[in-house]
Each structure stands twice: as C-alpha cells, then as structure tokens.
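Subject: mismatched residue count in predicted assembly?

I count 290 residues in my input, but I want to confirm that the predicted structure covers every chain. Input:
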Amino acid sequence: MTTHTTTAGRTASGSILLPAIAAFAIGFGLIFMTGLVQADTLHDAAHDVRHATGFPCH
Amino acid sequence: MFSRILTSGLIAGAATGLIAALLQLWFVQPVLLHAELYESGQLIHNGAQAVSAHQPPGDFEWTRNLLSVLFTMLTYAGYGLMLTALLAVAEARGHVVTAQQGLIWGIAGFVTMQLAPAFGLAPEVPGVAAADVGQRAIWWLGTAAATGVALWLIAFGRSALTWGVAVVLILAPHVIGAPQPDAYAGTVPPELSAEFAGRALGTGLMAWAMLGLAVAWFWQRDTAHAALPQTA
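Triage response: the counts match. Full output below for your records.
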C-alpha cells in the first residue's frame, strides 16, 4: 500500500486504463442483461424498458 | 480509481435512470399500452368501423411499472459506468471535463446507443413484424460500437484520416443495412408506431442529456476531492 497524490487531469494514462476497462465492461454487462439477453424471465421483466429504450425486443 | 469510476457512474446513472423511468412512464408507456390493445386484437384498425384514437388509460399496473423503473435504473447505471470510464480516460489524456461538456458527452451517448441504432431499427411498438431478434441484436451492437468509436475519433482525432475513418464507421452499418422482416404484419396503426418511436427517442435524448451532465458533475466533484492527499 502506498500513499500518493492524484491531481485532476494529471493521472497517468497507464493507471487509468485498467480500471476504466473494468468499469466499462461492468456497464456493458448491465446493458447487455437489461437490453439484450433473451431469457424469458429477464425479457418479461424488462419488456417495456426494452421497447422504450429502443433495444431489439422480441 | 476503479471505485471512483464505479461510484460516480453508478450514482449518476441510477439517479438519471429514475428520472428516465418517470419520463417513460409518463410519455411512452401510455402509447405502448394503447398499441397492445391492437397487438392483442382488442382493437382493430382499418376495419369496418372507425376506432376512436382516444382510449381510456386503464389501471396503473404496479408490479409491471416498478419492474420498468428498476430495469431503467439498471440500464442507465450501465450507461453511466461506460460514460464515466470513457470520461476518465479522456481526462487522463489531458481533456478537461466540465459539467457543460458533460452535456455533449451525453448527447454523443444518445447518438451512439439510441439514434444510430434507431436509424436502421426504429424503436419498436409491440406487435410489429421484425427480423430474427439475434440478428437484430448483432446489428444493433455493431452499430452502437462503430458509432461510438467514430464519435471518439471525431472528438479526439487530429488528422483528416481519422475523421475519414469516423465517417466510414458511422455510415457502414447503414450501408450494410439492418435486418428487416420478410413481410409486414403489424396490427398497430402507423400513427401510434410513429408516435411511439418519436416519444422513445425524445425521452432518450432528455435522459442522456441529464446523464451526461450528472456523470460529469459527479466526476468533477470526485476529482476535486481526489486532488487532496489520500491513501490509495
């Protein structure tokens, strides 16, 4: 564990990439689940949202 | 850093999702329920008798609508995470993100995730004919990905070549074309289908504009806090 100072706009590109990719992947997973997975239960629960948000539904 | 992206994205996304859900329940859901009367055969248009365009709204379905609120919040939490992750990368590359610029990020997100896919696959009212859902999902994802990359290249590219690539990426999915049904079988009046598509895109734009503002605002606030010495 190290102590360091992070300043706005000066974070090294390298240290941001991995957490950004991980967060992006989790976000994509959420959208994939709510919008695109065709399992019946998920489809039925998210039905109206899929239509209203423009995902392909049926 | 990961937890900063996670908290900013999730909080901004879920909060925006709640507002988006209310907008959808108010503006989109009545059109959807109206269309379902035609989908189920309770109403038939173009029959012998004219059907009133004004139908009673019906009872408020609590379970169905609360599930919609939950899933809209989850969807926008996902959008929020993706947007925050991209914002963090842009900031690390020297791009300053203000709340006002968040608005542009939000609109770019709307173009990527809703407008560009809708150009080929308009938001579907229940009961319309459509091609295989798997094929549409693949086209939808490919279009969103190509458009998103293209907008990034337009925003941060510095040469005519990158902008050229961006134009190709934006147009390619539409030149290829979205999967379309073999035959039309829609039972819902075209007036309702058009109203549904307009409402879905309109509420989407409102929600994405708020999401961009919220994500940038939370990120900026967290950045200010993170500027103080801390233990990582």
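The mean pLDDT of chain A is 83. Marking this ticket as 'not a bug'.
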